[in-house]
Amino acid sequence: MMPNKVLSWRDNLYHQLLFRHCSLCQLPLTQIERYWCSHCITNFPTPPYCQHCGTTTLSTVAHCGRCLSTPPLWQRLYRLGEYRPPLQQLVHQLKFYGKFWLAQPLAQQLARQITQPAPLLLPVPLHWRRYCQRGFNQSHQLALALATIFNSRVNHSAFQRLRHTPSQQQLTKTQRRRNLQQAFTLRQRVLPNHVAIIDDVVTTGATVHQLTQLLIHHGVKHVDIYTLCHTEQPLN
């Protein structure tokens, strides 16, 4: 069970001064609400999904039909919701508008879904060019927030991105995998049997597929994926 985090007096003062209204609907927050009101949180797009690949399903299942025919390499995917409003806007604010402080409340919501936390969290790396453009790695910020909740460790340098690849946004699943071939390497070779890869959005799973392959090749037995949002693309 996720432990309750006790906010320090500095955190309480920070929230009272800067986050007195819900960042989504702008209504005043109560004393126990943080960042978003309870009404907006209930409107987060969180339909049931396949616990293996993350695809939205009619009811929560351990394996969907797609997984039974072509199972992902990892064992379990935990997600907060679908990549649509309001989560879509929050991820955009975190990723493209420098609002890195959103990583903490988003991680707190995601942590509620995670039943068996991994002892080691590995954020998806950015190429140094993109890191310089953005100023931070959103997946690393999420990993740090989750590690605080679960008392896990974070290794932000276990993976290294070797190539500066074009944006994946307009590519199909097949094109994404080709785009990411030999784009990563694993620098940390001594790893526990259970680790989790942290990514802000999983679309086709091409990125986490490549990283999971590296982990399995070096002896990791159980790989989980922690992501804020999942979105689906055509199967081509």
TrEMBL record:
Coiled coil: none annotated. Residues 167-230 form the Phosphoribosyltransferase domain. PANTHER family: DNA UTILIZATION PROTEIN YHGH (PTHR47505). Belongs to the ComF/GntX family. This is ComF family protein. It comes from Photobacterium kishitanii. The lineage of its organism: Bacteria, Pseudomonadati, Pseudomonadota, Gammaproteobacteria, Vibrionales.
